[in-house]
Amino acid sequence: MTHGELQALFEAYVPWNEQERNDRELALQAFRSFDDLLTRENTILHLCASPWIISRDHRQVLLVYHRLYDSWGWSGGHCDGDGVLWRVAKREGMEESGITSLALADERPIGIDVLSVPRHHKNGALVSAHLHLNVTYLFYGDPALSLSHKADEVKGARWFDVEAIPRIVKEKAMLPVYAKLCERARTL
């Protein structure tokens, strides 16, 4: 998708709650201000995509243990020039968890979030604090499939009961995001 098509995606997105209304407005402001959101050349904000991977019965969610955040959480990553956001989400989910098959539930996103990323080191270089404009898509996965993980980014991948999310996620600021995604998934 082009810059204009991506902006149109955000314009057409119907926010789920107040947080999404605010984040959608920030996203539209970013599209009006920057033309390099698809790459990491923009040091302020990067466009990213995540899969919310659940079992077809909606009882389990596939999470990875992030080294950066020292917590279980969703998969996801930078677009790195790819404007097909659901494809980025699928790629990131498969790379980070090792799952070999994911089924896209809908090409429309189920969530948009502006997330802060703390200053950190990656490949020996300092990465300044910045924002991720994250778009989430719903995918179905099979908990019977074997998992592996991308060891340089995550420490593991595992299926959890949805009810376990508040107990296992250390990033408390992410709990409302994950609750929203579970709710959105149930409405599809």
Automatic annotation (TrEMBL):
Gene3D superfamilies assigned to the protein according to its UniProt record, in alphabetical order: Nucleoside Triphosphate Pyrophosphohydrolase
Organism superkingdom: Bacteria
PROSITE patterns: NUDIX (PS51462)
Annotated signal peptide: none
A Pfam family: NUDIX
Stored InterPro entries: NUDIX_hydrolase-like_dom_sf, NUDIX_hydrolase_dom
UniProt domain Nudix hydrolase: residue ranges: 44-181
SUPFAM superfamilies found in the cross-reference section: Nudix
Coiled coil: none
Similarity annotation: Belongs to the Nudix hydrolase family.
Protein name as annotated: NUDIX domain-containing protein
